[in-house]
């Protein structure tokens, strides 16, 4: 161990920068201790005490003293040379850089950089979502809670506060909304028009808004309520607020409501509010009998497609007739050719869905046409699929079920699970039709056709090896303006033999017709 | 309001998945991504309690009251007297210390050393051994300075015979106190208690204190905020750098001292003592801040932080609306630079009442005005400004009386809001000296640290 020192004449540095400088010297190769100080009497005695100076040197307060302790003399000399060079070059920090700024860390802080913010979109883990929503509301901001796993005990006070302050809480578990033409969460790019939508179901909202666009009309607003809103505990607070807002909104001519059938008390309040709007209101309570809803300005419908169709007719000033429950003629002609491809033992539909409401609507329509349909979201308890991983007769699976999304992205984003299942169904000699939904829009996979095609072709190969054919039926929920582009996605799926209908309901009916009487 | 939203441009704050913010922008909307993390270190109960207090009308009103009282304070340095005369209700066998309450057995090395020094100074024991026995034996009352309107740097020990600065808030009428700064090196506040330390304390009590008192009487008191305001324009932040403020005070005191009937020899030593200590003003700065903050203390419902203080073991926070309660967490270590021959392994955890300066919006909060300080952690003048800018996000407002030249003379951030600290996770920044962990060695470095978030989380939990 060697200690060396050097005095640099007439060089002043303040003590803080010298302490900093000493740190740098300590980091040099082969150096254990280093100290750079102005050579005052006090500093010199400190160095002696610290054992860095063997004896006192005469003080010279205007000179800078560097002491280093290192491996050997070559290390200390190199360090002293380096130190002197560093002291004599000008600082590189010339102050050109700007001042670092902290990104917004709280809602309140965000308002400093976006003072006119009027809306908060929350997709934090569910356990923290209610607190963020509460802050947003107390700051006077409308809220959409994409987050799920928020309890009703947390949801109710949020919605009550929001109602008292004339603010909107869409959600929790609200996947979709379109406000002022801006898609939020998982949503399609839908033409603007005069139909206002309030929906308790995310994919339900995506289906009706996309079909409105497909049918040549457009929307004013599309609000989501979240799945719990129409339970009697919550009382449909958001749905009622939504109806009221659309009733007041001058741009909205027609109102469209989508939900599973609410509890009777909530249903009554919703229909009362709808009646008071004095605007035509289309009501799709998925699974309820439309006749029990229809009356006055209210038009009950059976499917999401009928809902969109009715709303578009009303928006164009036309009257709504009763919609047919059967497959339209243009799809009927597709039934026979498809049936011809199938062998006798191929009897069942295997529906693999990424959208919960698409799955639910399909179960309803298929059971009406075919009887028993097994599912993880059955209508009847005894039709719950015993093993979700293995199909049984007619089976329709919602792959967006929590069961499948543990630790992996939603099936609208990640197609691996559905693709594996397609191949699995292809191996089953009883599989006749594989029924699919494809959801476009922001939030979804940027090329769903590209994800599905290899699996569809793989399934066809498996079937061909066993001298069978498979029929693929599906619908694409989306618009021409979606980033994935509706026509392009449809064309690519048709190229590999998928039979596409405009809507989920028609796809279900077509599939039922193919496996039905033949 | 819902219908108003339909007529406005949608401007979205996005909390969570950043792809949602991007798609809003891609479709022509405006969005701002929040740099979100679970507030209150993920404690849901505190998180919800916090949420309920954000923009709550009652809390806002309480905070306006507390903040106005704090800002309108006019602390005047009135005089110097023995603690037993100056500090109301100070018991005869009471020793005050820095930070939240702590019993003898848990005190850090420097604080125990300072206590022993104070016992010897009071003549309650004749040697360090018996002083230690007395302290451990339970015959003395130890209490935080803060419980008596007082503040002290480092171990912050004040005993009944010690001279203390007396500061009066002219606006609110409240008093605050601090001991007199002994200088650097072997000093009581770092736990030194040998003969040289005791001798200096005796002199301070017998000569310096009365001299200061006489000079202040001559002056009719000294308004403190103008001195701090001016020092902030001269490179001080009045916590870790007091070079300018000490000089400004020296300028005020010297002519007054010359008008007193102090003997020439005493006068010379007094002036020499003040001139030789760049931190002479620190204790006065602290008492000034304490007087300001105490005015804002005790407003029901207010989340104004009125004290941050450390005892070398724990860091404690007090809040206006929660009375005498302390919210504590283990005292952090200080990141900084060390004097020659010392390293981080020699350091005691964060110590002293001096964080009262940051609580009042100077010190680390005004670092932008004192770029020399930021070098302690290898920073640039830009970093110093950035520290100050960051503190605006956790304060209730600004102090128009304290402006900062490098920030285009913007007013300094002032009045920590515990809600904002917990919500943003931005911890108050503190400039501070580093004490040796062993009694009596003294200061071994200086640097920058952050107040522990846990203290503010507990404050909100109990609000």
Short description:
The complex is a heterodimer of chains A (518) and B (463). Chain A is an alpha/beta fold and 518 residues long.
What does this structure look like?
The complex is a heterodimer of chains A (518) and B (463). Chain A is of the alpha/beta class and 518 residues long. Chain A has 3 domains: 2-88, Alpha-Beta Plaits (2-Layer Sandwich); 107-315, Rossmann fold; 329-515, Rossmann fold, CATH 3.40.50.261. Chain A is 39% helix and 20% strand. In chain A, strand 11, helix 9 (264-276) and strand 12 (281-285) form a beta-alpha-beta unit. Residues 90-97 of chain A have low confidence and may be disordered. Chain B has 3 domains: 1-36, no CATH class; 76-284, Enterococcus faecalis V583 domain (Enterococcus faecalis V583 fold, Alpha-Beta Complex), CATH 3.90.1710; 294-461, Alpha-Beta Complex (v583 fold), CATH 3.90.1700. With 463 residues, chain B is of the alpha+beta class. Chains A and B meet through helix 1, helix 2, helix 4, strand 4 and helix 5 of A and helix 1, strand 1, helix 2, strand 2 and helix 3 of B.
Strand composition percent of chain A = 15-25%
Uncertain parts of chain A: 90-97
User: What is Rg of chain B?
Assistant: 23 Å
Largest interface, C-beta closer than 8 angstroms, per-chain residues:
A-B, 85 and 70 residues
| CATH top level class name of the largest domain in chain B | Alpha Beta
Largest sheet: number of strands, sense, barrel closure of chain B: 5 strands, mixed
Number of domains of chain A: 3
N/C terminus separation of chain A: 97 Å
In CATH, what is the homologous superfamily of the largest domain in chain A?
Succinyl-CoA synthetase domains
Low-confidence stretches of chain B: none
**CATH topology label of the largest domain in chain A:** Rossmann fold
Report the helical percentage of chain B: 25-40%
Q: What number of structural domains do the residues of chain B give? A: 3
CATH architecture of the largest domain in chain A: 3-Layer(aba) Sandwich
Overall structural class of chain B, as computed from helix and strand content, comes to alpha+beta
Shape of chain A: elongated
Q: Can you give the mean pLDDT of chain B?
A: 95
CATH superfamily of the largest domain in chain B: Enterococcus faecalis V583 domain
Mean pLDDT of chain A: 93
Distance between the termini of chain B: 31 Å
């Amino acid at each position: 161990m060697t200690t060396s020192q050097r005095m640099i004449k007439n060089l002043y540095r303040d003590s803080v920068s010298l302490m900093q400088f000493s740190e740098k010297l300590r980091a040099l190769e082969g150096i254990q201790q280093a100290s750079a100080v102005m050579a005052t009497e006090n500093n010199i005695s400190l160095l002696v005490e610290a054992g860095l100076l063997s004896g006192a040197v005469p003080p010279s307060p205007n000179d800078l003293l560097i002491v280093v302790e290192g491996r050997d003399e070559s290390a200390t000399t190199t360090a002293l040379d380096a130190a002197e060079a560093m002291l004599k070059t000008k600082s590189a920090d010339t102050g050109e850089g700007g001042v670092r700024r902290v990104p917004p860390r709280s809602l309140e802080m965000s308002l400093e950089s976006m003072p006119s913010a009027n809306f908060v979109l929350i997709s934090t883990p569910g356990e923290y979502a209610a607190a963020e929503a509460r802050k947003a509301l107390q700051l006077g901001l409308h809220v959409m809670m994409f987050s799920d796993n928020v309890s009703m005990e947390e949801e109710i006070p949020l919605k009550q506060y929001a109602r008292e302050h004339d603010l909107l809480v869409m959600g929790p578990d609200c996947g979709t909304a379109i406000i002022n033409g801006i898609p939020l969460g998982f949503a399609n790019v839908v033409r603007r028009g005069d139909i206002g939508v309030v929906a308790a179901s995310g994919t339900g909202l995506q289906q009706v808004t996309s079909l409105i666009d497909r049918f040549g009309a457009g929307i004013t607003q599309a609000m989501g309520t979240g799945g719990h809103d129409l339970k009697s505990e919550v009382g449909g607070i958001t749905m009622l607020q939504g109806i009221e807002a659309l009733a007041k909104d001058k741009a909205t001519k027609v109102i469209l409501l989508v939900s599973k059938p609410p509890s009777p008390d909530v249903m009554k309040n919703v229909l009362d509010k709808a009646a008071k709007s004095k605007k035509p209101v289309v009501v799709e309570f998925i699974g309820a009998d439309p006749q029990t809803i229809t009356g006055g300005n209210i038009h009950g419908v059976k499917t999401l497609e009928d809902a969109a169709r009715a709303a578009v007719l009303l928006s164009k000033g036309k009257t709504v007739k009763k919609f047919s429950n059967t497959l339209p003629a243009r799809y009927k002609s597709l039934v026979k050719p498809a049936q011809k491809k199938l062998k006798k033992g191929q009897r069942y539909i295997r529906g693999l869905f990424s959208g919960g409401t698409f799955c639910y609507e399909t179960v309803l329509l298929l059971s009406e046409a075919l009887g028993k349909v097994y599912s993880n979201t059955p209508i009847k308890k005894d039709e719950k699929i015993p093993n979700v991983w293995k199909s049984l007769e007619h089976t329709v699976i919602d792959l967006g079920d929590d069961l499948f999304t543990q630790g992996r992205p939603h099936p609208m984003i990640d197609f691996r699970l559905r693709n594996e299942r397609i191949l699995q169904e292809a191996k089953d000699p009883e599989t006749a039709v594989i029924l699919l939904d494809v959801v476009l829009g922001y939030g979804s996979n940027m090329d769903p056709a590209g994800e599905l095609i290899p699996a569809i072709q793989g399934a066809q190969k498996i079937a061909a090896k066993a001298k069978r054919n498979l029929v693929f039926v599906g619908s694409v929920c989306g618009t021409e303006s979606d980033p994935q582009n509706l026509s392009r996605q449809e064309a690519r799926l048709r190229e590999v033999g998928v039979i596409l209908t405009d809507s989920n309901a028609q796809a279900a009916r077509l599939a039922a017709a193919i496996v039905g009487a033949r | 309001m819902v219908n108003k939203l339909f007529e406005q441009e949608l401007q979205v704050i996005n909390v969570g998945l950043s792809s949602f913010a991007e798609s809003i922008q891609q479709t022509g909307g405006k969005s701002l991504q929040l740099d979100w993390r679970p507030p209150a270190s993920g404690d849901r109960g505190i998180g919800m309690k916090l949420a309920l207090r954000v923009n709550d009308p009652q809390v806002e009103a309480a905070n306006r009251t507390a903040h106005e009282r704090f800002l309108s304070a006019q602390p005047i340095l009135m005089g110097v007297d023995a603690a037993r005369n100056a500090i109301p209700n100070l018991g005869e066998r009471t020793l005050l210390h820095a930070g939240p309450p702590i019993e003898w057995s848990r005190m850090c090395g420097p604080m125990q050393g300072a206590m022993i020094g104070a016992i010897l100074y009071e003549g309650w024991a004749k040697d360090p051994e018996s002083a230690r026995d007395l302290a451990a034996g339970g015959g003395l009352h130890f209490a935080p300075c803060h419980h008596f309107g007082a503040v002290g740097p480092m171990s912050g020990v004040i005993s009944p015979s010690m001279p203390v600065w007396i500061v009066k808030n002219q606006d609110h009428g409240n008093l605050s106190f601090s001991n007199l700064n002994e200088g650097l090196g072997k000093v009581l506040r770092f736990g030194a208690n040998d003969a040289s330390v005791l001798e200096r304390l005796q002199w301070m009590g017998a000569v310096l204190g009365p001299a200061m008192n006489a000079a202040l009487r001559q002056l009719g008191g000294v308004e403190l905020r103008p001195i701090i305001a001016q020092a902030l324009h001269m490179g001080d932040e009045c916590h870790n750098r007091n070079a300018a403020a000490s000089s400004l005070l020296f300028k005020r005191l010297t002519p007054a001292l010359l008008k007193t009937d102090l003997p020439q020899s005493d006068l010379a030593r007094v002036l020499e003592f003040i001139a030789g200590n760049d931190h002479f003003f620190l204790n006065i700065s602290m008492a000034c801040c304490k007087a300001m903050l105490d005015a804002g203390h005790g407003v029901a419902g207010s989340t104004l932080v009125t004290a941050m203080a450390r005892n070398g073991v724990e860091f404690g926070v007090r809040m206006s609306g929660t009375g005498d309660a302390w919210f504590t967490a283990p005292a952090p270590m200080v990141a900084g630079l060390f004097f020659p021959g010392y390293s981080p392994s020699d350091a005691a955890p964060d110590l002293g009442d001096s964080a009262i300066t940051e609580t009042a919006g100077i010190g680390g909060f005004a670092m932008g005005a004192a770029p020399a300080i930021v070098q302690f952690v290898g920073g640039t003048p830009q970093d110093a400004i950035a520290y100050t800018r960051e503190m605006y996000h956790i304060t209730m407002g600004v102090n128009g009386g304290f402006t900062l030249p490098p920030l285009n003379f913007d007013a300094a951030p002032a009045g920590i809001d515990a809600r904002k600290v917990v919500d943003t996770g931005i911890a108050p920044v503190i400039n501070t000296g580093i004490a040796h962990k062993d009694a009596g060695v003294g200061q071994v470095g200086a640097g920058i640290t952050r107040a522990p978030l846990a203290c503010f989380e507990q404050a909100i939990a109990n609000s």
